[in-house]
Write a structure and sequence with these properties.
It is built from 28 helices and 20 strands. By secondary structure, it is α+β, with helices and mostly antiparallel strands.
Length: 782
């Protein structure tokens, strides 16, 4: 910046005459009595002192301040920052009224979120399927010819126990639901008249997947067995003849969140002439980023489950430059992955989907070739989210049927071309047929990250029953209870809490003995259970995230964390169950030990990590990246200082305070929780100082005293509510909310308040806004 300059009254008068219509701020008076507009004065000061470094419109300048001058600080915060730190190296050149005038100008002209929307109105951008949307869409395209699993609360697998080594109805002795598969029958067998030397057990049900990724499925057994997963004929592990000493078998498989895969496990104990080992079988897994454990009852559903498919092809990560996944990037890696996915699905179409269709239509009188054409047309219409005209049928189906007599080859060619087509990869391209088809497409994307494939939904499209807001709201409400919607809600909550980055939580063993990977896995499951409990409770009240006074715990958690996570029963089990927590020390999910341990170093707390988390994610505020790499002071260098004292010392410089005045003021509030999330009242024999502050988006300074004060404030914080609503909208719609109308955010906030902060209602309203707003078509191609 240049040095302070003096403006004459005549210059002010000339500028006012030229720019008066733009400047609407309150006027002040010069010494001579002429009225001066402070915002105009701020503009002139900015152009003279600031534009060389920050750009004429705050866009940044190469070699100086390259980042855009945008954010959400209040005018008061900007005034303080400018007065204390700007111009760089000469902060005394712009203080008091001048600093306030500059702050007022840049806030109005280009800095504030409102200014950014005004200067560059957001538009709905044409996007292709994200990796998860591609995976989900292929799963639903498969399920269209099978069925979607209905939500069931019956846990475990349904077991049939027979005396003898095969299924004979007259030999069935036991029929029951087993919560888990973890049995050591020894030499006596299951009992109830079953010969321990020769018996057969058949378990059937569904495996519910709550996180997409690579799983290791593990069976430990001393008997012969086979395990089928996903399809009645899809063998995952085949050990139908037990031989040798091998008793542990495992197979990797990619599974998709929000899906229930049919699982069938058969165990045979055959009588041997040689010494027979005791009968044993255990069904375990290693989930993505987790540890080996018995598959818990919460992931098993008793009874029949329809065939299901999960793409095994690895898909590249999506663009996240806006803070949420968007289908923007197009490169060789993405194109190769889409081609590989199409080829994989073509093969599964030949081996499983087409045979299923043939069985379903075995009574049809049409010849095989006509039946195949009907099948391919139906498959592509579901993939393209609308009816094909004659020209499309010829291009996508008929020409391939005419060029080969091999049904399998024809299917592969048709599927490959269809799944590489923009009509499949770009969901909004087909939104011009009719209102109901458009609404169904948007609802499936919002609620499931997928395409319309359910018969009941397609029936409504065919009947034109998604033509008004009431019909759309009723449909979205029905979709809300689906496994797929439940999965998407959970991933939204994970994004809100930034949990996807907490993948490897380890601690100093000398300080935190017993903080093992198994405990971390339990803590993650405990937090997930708490999130689900709030969302699916009767009130679905967002405020319960901060006030809930019960916890999900098990023996391992209770043993490590003590009374604040004690069990309500005496059962020796690792299963999670709800229990009364410690209302004096635990305040909702913000103080959950999984979150607190994840937002800490391996040997100490991190007020900075916790403060950044609260600022960016919970309150939805903007923080610019640090100017240089940050390495925390080692506790060994200052053995007598508390963590709070050490962080204050390191971040005390004026250059740091622009951000750390926000960060530290929130991070210190959680200092009662150590590096593993255990409550403490002292550090280094000194009482914990958990006092802090938060400056809201409207400039109000709130004094907070510890986690209880934070929880109480979060209940009523407009900033926190708005952050939650905006995060939910971005996650479900994958577009900026402002693109759906300048008042869309405010309308959604109002609905949220009127519903008593009902999360389920919020998701439905997000779907309604997306499905009823015509502006989504106007931005295509921008």
């Amino acid at each position: 910046m240049n040095s302070r300059f003096a403006l004459t009254n005549s210059l002010f008068a000339a500028c006012l005459a030229l720019m008066g219509p733009f400047c609407v701020a309150t006027e002040s008076q010069t010494d001579s009595g002429a009225k001066v507009n402070p915002r105009l004065e701020g503009e002139l000061i900015y152009k003279r002192q600031c534009a060389d470094c920050h750009g004429a419109a705050g866009e940044g300048v190469n070699g100086a301040y390259e980042r855009s001058l945008v954010g959400d600080s209040s005018i008061g915060e900007l005034t303080k920052l400018i007065s204390e730190t700007m111009p760089e190296g000469e902060p005394e050149a712009c203080t008091a009224e001048d600093a306030q005038a500059v702050a007022d100008y840049i806030h109005y002209a280009f800095y504030s979120p409102a200014a950014q929307v005004r200067n560059r109105p957001p538009k709905v951008v044409l996007t292709h399927l994200t990796s998860d949307q591609l995976r989900q869409s292929l799963s639903d395209l498969y399920a269209h010819f099978s069925e979607i699993a209905a939500v069931s609360e019956t846990r475990g697998l349904h077991g049939l126990y027979f005396d003898g080594e095969r299924w004979k109805e007259d030999k069935k002795k036991i029929e029951r639901d087993d919560a888990t598969i973890n049995f050591d029958f020894g030499h006596d067998g299951p009992g109830d008249g079953i010969n321990g030397k020769q018996f057969y057990i058949y378990w059937e049900g569904g495996l519910e997947i709550q996180e997409t990724g690579r799983y290791q499925i593990i069976v430990e057994s001393s008997c012969s067995f086979n395990l089928k997963l996903g399809h009645a004929e899809r063998m995952l592990i085949d050990n139908h003849v037990q031989s040798g000493d091998k008793t542990v078998f495992n197979e990797p498989v990619e599974l998709t969140g929000g899906r229930v895969y049919p699982i069938r496990l058969e165990l045979r104990q055959r009588e041997r002439k040689t010494e027979q080992p005791p009968a044993k079988i255990v069904l375990r897994w290693i989930p993505p980023g987790g540890v080996e454990t018995v598959i818990p009852a919460r992931n098993l559903r008793s009874g029949w489950a329809p065939n299901a498919y999960s793409l095994q092809t690895h898909l590249p990560p999506d663009d996240r430059s806006y803070g949420y996944d968007r289908g923007i990037s197009i490169n060789r890696q993405w194109d190769d992955a889409v081609t590989a996915a199409a080829l994989e699905f073509a093969q599964i179409t030949v081996s499983e989907i087409w045979p299923t269709y043939q069985r379903q239509h075995r009574k049809d009188k049409t010849d095989n070739r006509t039946k195949l054409r009907d099948f391919l047309v139906e498959l592509i219409e579901v993939a393209f989210r609308g009816k094909l005209d004659d020209e499309q049928k010829s291009a996508y189906v008929d020409q391939f049927l005419m060029t080969t007599d091999d049904d399998s080859e024809a299917i592969k060619r048709v599927v490959l071309v269809a799944l590489k087509s923009p009509w499949f990869l770009y969901p909004s391209l087909g939104e011009l047929q009719n209102a109901s088809a458009t609404a169904a497409n948007r609802l499936a994307l919002v609620m499931y990250d997928s395409l319309p494939s359910d018969d009941w939904l397609l029936h409504r499209v065919g009947k034109g029953q998604l033509a008004n807001e009431a019909q759309i709201r009723e449909t979205a409400t029905r979709m809300l209870t689906d496994y797929r919607a439940r999965y998407k809600i959970r991933t939204m909550l994970h994004a809100w809490l930034n949990l996807q980055h907490l993948t490897d939580i380890r601690k100093d063993e000398s300080q935190f003995n017993g903080f093992e990977p198994e405990l971390v896995a339990d803590l993650k499951a405990s937090l997930n259970a708490a999130l689900d409990d709030v969302v699916w409770s009767d009130g679905s009240d967002y405020r319960k995230f901060f006030t809930r006074d019960w916890v999900y715990t098990n023996n391992r958690i209770a043993a490590f964390y003590g009374d604040c996570y004690k069990r309500a029963d005496e059962l020796a089990t690792t299963d999670l169950s709800p229990s009364v927590g410690d209302p004096e020390h635990r305040f909702g999910i913000m103080t959950h030990p999984f979150l607190m341990s994840g937002l800490a170093y391996h040997d100490s707390t991190s007020p900075i990590h916790r403060g950044v988390f609260l600022t960016r994610y919970v309150f939805g505020r903007t923080l610019r990246p640090p100017n240089e790499a940050f390495t925390p002071f080692s506790p060994d260098l200052h053995p007598d200082l508390t963590t709070r004292d050490r962080v204050s010392l390191q971040t005390g410089a004026e250059a740091c305070q622009a951000c750390h005045s926000r960060i530290n003021g929130l991070g210190f509030i959680l200092e009662n929780y150590d590096a593993v999330g255990r409550f403490r009242e002292q550090e280094k024999a000194k009482p914990i100082n958990a006092a802090g502050t938060y400056v809201s988006a409207d400039g109000e300074t709130i004094e907070l005293e510890g986690p209880h004060s934070l929880a109480s404030y979060l209940i009523d914080s407009d900033d926190a509510r708005r952050a939650f609503v905006n995060r939910a909208f971005q996650h479900f719609v994958k577009q900026p909310i402002e693109a759906f109308g300048v008042d869309a955010s405010q309308r959604l906030m109002q609905k949220f308040v009127e519903s008593q902060f009902n999360i389920q209602t919020l998701i439905v309203e997000i779907a309604v806004i997306s499905a009823t707003n015509p502006s989504i078509l106007e931005g295509q191609g921008t």
